[in-house]
């Protein structure tokens, strides 16, 4: 019973982060399942089974709050489903230890770019509203779905920064669209695991516990992304990508560093992230004050009444 309660709490927190930042549900939940002794394939299968419900609830919540671009969802979901099914069916037993550092290095650079871009310049309105091209979304969906199925999570970490970096969508629209399309990806991955693994190792009770916690958090997370300033949200996403992939690289076999050095690097990234978010909040408040002053100046002055 205690394990189920902890899993429900983990599902709630994971969905709260995923629904508001567009990533981390699969990574967080899979990590917890691995810590309690589940093998990687079964852990990924259990999480994706729970994600069928959590992503559906999250998608509905984002849709009701206007956070979804359905054209993007339609163009990225099907390739994502193909990639997820292929990864779950044929590659769930293949170690991703070699591929993970390479992907993490790419995401690390992209996360740093996002952190600098949103912190220093905010959201550019020059490209917002322009359609995201199909030739960009199809390979992105294939790759993101493949990584998501084989790594126990990755749809958000791959799709969210790539769409944010395009500069054509507001952060809340990116997050809402990625979370909504993940329902199709989770469904395809679950079908792939069912074909490749059957029900071996999958604990339905754990999946239900994760599902209950995630469904409870979905509307809260959708509200958070609706009211968060885009500049602050972009800095938060960039910092999360930076921190997550720094840890992946430093704990891989490709890099050998001592514990004190690793701790110092983590502390530096945390400080950089906190400083970036604080700067973005300050800049957002300054922009809001400037807009208020402009509206006051543009409003017609009161004309004194004639005596």
From TrEMBL:
Pfam families: TauE (PF01925). It is found in: Cell membrane; Membrane. Keywords: Cell membrane, Membrane, Transmembrane, Transmembrane helix. It comes from the Bacteria. The keyword Transmembrane applies. Its main location: membrane. The chain crosses the membrane at residues 72-94, 106-124, 136-163, 183-200, 206-225, 232-251, 263-281. It is a multi-pass membrane protein. The keyword Chloroplast does not apply. PANTHER family: MEMBRANE TRANSPORTER PROTEIN MJ0441-RELATED, MEMBRANE TRANSPORTER PROTEIN YTNM-RELATED. Belongs to the 4-toluene sulfonate uptake permease (TSUP) (TC 2.A.102) family. This is Probable membrane transporter protein.
């Amino acid at each position: 019973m205690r394990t189920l309660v902890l899993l429900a709490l983990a599902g709630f927190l994971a969905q709260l982060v995923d629904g508001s930042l567009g990533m981390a549900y699969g990574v967080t939940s899979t990590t917890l399942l691995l810590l309690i002794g589940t093998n990687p394939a079964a852990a990924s299968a259990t999480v994706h089974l729970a994600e069928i419900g959590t992503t559906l609830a999250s998608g509905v919540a984002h849709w009701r709050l206007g956070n979804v671009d359905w054209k993007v969802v339609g163009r990225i979901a099907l390739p994502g489903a193909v990639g997820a099914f292929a990864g779950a069916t044929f590659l769930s037993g293949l170690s991703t230890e070699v591929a993970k550092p390479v992907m993490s290095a790419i995401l690390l650079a992209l996360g740093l770019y996002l952190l600098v871009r949103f912190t220093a310049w905010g959201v550019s309105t020059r490209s917002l509203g322009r359609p995201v091209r199909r030739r960009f979304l199809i390979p992105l969906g294939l790759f993101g779905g493949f990584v998501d199925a084989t790594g126990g999570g990755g749809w958000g970490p791959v799709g969210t920064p790539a769409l944010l970096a395009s500069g054509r969508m507001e952060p809340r629209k990116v997050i809402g669209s990625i979370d909504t399309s993940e329902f199709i990806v989770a469904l395809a991955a679950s079908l792939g695991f069912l074909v490749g693994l059957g029900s071996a190792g999958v604990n339905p009770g754990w999946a239900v516990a994760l599902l209950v916690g995630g469904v409870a958090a979905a509307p809260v997370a959708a509200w958070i992304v609706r009211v968060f300033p885009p500049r602050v949200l972009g800095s938060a996403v960039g910092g999360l990508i930076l921190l997550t992939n720094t840890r992946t690289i430093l704990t891989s076999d490709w890099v050998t560093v001592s514990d004190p050095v690793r701790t110092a690097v983590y502390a530096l990234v945390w400080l950089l992230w906190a400083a970036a978010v604080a700067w973005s909040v300050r800049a957002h408040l300054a922009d809001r004050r400037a807009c208020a002053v402009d509206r006051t100046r543009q409003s017609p002055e009161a004309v004194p009444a004639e005596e």
